[in-house]
Amino acid sequence: MYSTCLFCNSDLGANEVIEHFPVGRRLAFDASKGRLWVVCRKCERWNLTPLEERWEAIEEAERLFSDTRMRVSTDNIGLARLGEGLELVRIGAALRPEMAAWRYGDQFGRRRRRQLALVGAGATAVGALVVLGPVMGIIAGGGWMSWQIISQGYQVYDARRVRARLRLPDADQVVAVRKKELAYAAIIRESEHGWALRLTLKKKNERPAADRERVFLYTGAQALRAASQLLPAINEKGGKPAEVQSAVRVLTDSGTPDALFRTHASVDEREFKRDPRFRTLLHLPMEIRMALEMASHEEQERRALEGELALLEAAWREAEEVATIADDLFLPPQTEVELERLRSRKED
Questions:
Q1: pTM exceeding 0.70
Q2: pLDDT by residue (tens digit) across 181-228?
Q3: Where are the alpha helices (DSSP H) in 217-284?
Q4: Strand spans (E) along the chain
């Protein structure tokens, strides 16, 4: 078993995921032809592994690839990143994507537990102020008045706290989005792309008052990128396991992230301006909001992976030619004759 690249002599790295082949940080495999390569991360060349070391490793890689939630595929090649950092390139027919609720269950569950902890801490603080406030002389009105003042101060602070930073559409400027501005975020119908993300930002001390609002429309890839940054802040309270399961079903039934966003873009810009009440993201049902967040993240990660697929497929085709020659060197002449005879019988 080699550990350095056959072409540039760089270290191929190691993994603790494939028990039968712990070499490499990116492995490519073709289960139908029984081939396994280690892809060098420095020169990107494909190193064909020895025949005797392939079979168990290929079976293990196939199983891990099938169980991985985040993967992308074309007709001939698929790419998956495992949680441990190992990348698997699968050669062959693309597998149908599957949804796995566990990937998002931890995220939304963690947010919900944090929110419950904050509520519990607030209730404890109220009790302490009510009981101890008069005793310790905290504000003449007593503990409850103290809490009211603290609570109002926190609400003002929380409304102004920055929740996301977005690059404006078709501009280099990055702007801060505060919690009070999340209440104006909405997805609306748009003629060219089907849907758009509408965001309203406030400016201070502008005269006249109409100039205090700036409205931005994000479309296409920019809309998905912006949604992936805004929705975690909008869904900060997380969700219960049952709600996560419902969101997964919504996402699965939608077919594509774009279709899901189009489905819930219920009004266009003109209708939204006329009556924006109950048409923002905050007013959508919890499972819909969570499904939209899942979809936006899925699509962003998928696009990042797809950027590598074209290069991978070209490298695979070149490596396939070399592999065919290399494997044939180990076959006795009569084997090819017998294979040709079997192919002829099958065609007949």
A1: no
A2: 888 899 999 988 899 999 988 776 555 555 578 889 999 888 988 998
A3: 220-234, 241-254, 257-263, 269-274
A4: 26-30, 35-39, 46-48, 71-73, 77-81, 87-91, 162-167, 174-178, 186-190, 194-202, 213-219
